[in-house]
Amino acid sequence: MAAMSAIRYDANFKAFYERLKANGKQTTQAQIAVMRKLIITAHSLYKNGRKYDVDFNAQKDKDLV
């Protein structure tokens, strides 16, 4: 399952999953949320013609400071 690989190997998805679990979501609910986030991310990348960048959110946060 792609969501499980994303949780294991991608720091952003792992942090998202761990945050959901810490907030009391069940494992299956958190996995489904990661699946949805993967689909939305893939569609956005395809629509905008971009490649996935792990540090995208970090760069965006630096611009706000």
Return the structural class.
mainly alpha
Shape: globular
Number of domains: 1
On the 0 to 100 scale, the average pLDDT is 88
Rg measurement, Å: 13 Å
Distance between the termini: 37 Å
How would a crystallographer describe the biggest sheet?
none
What is the number of helical segments per DSSP (H or I, 4+ residues)? 4
Which band does the percent of strand residues land in? under 5%
Strand segment tally: 0
- Helical fraction equals over 70%
Q: What sequence of helices (H) and strands (E) makes up the elements?
A: HHHH
List low-pLDDT spans.
Answer: none
What does this structure look like?
The chain is an all-alpha fold and 65 residues long. It has one domain. 78% of the residues lie in helices and 0% in strands. The protein is built from 4 helices and no strands. The protein has helices spanning 2-9, 11-22, 27-48, 56-64. Helix 2 (11-22) runs antiparallel to helix 3 (27-48). The chain is globular and about 35 Å long. The model has no long low-confidence stretch (mean pLDDT 88).
In short:
The protein has about 60 residues and is an all-alpha fold.
List the helices and strands and how they pair.
Layout: H1 2-9, H2 11-22, H3 27-48, H4 56-64
List keywords for this structure.
single chain; 65 residues; mainly alpha; 4 helices; 0% strand
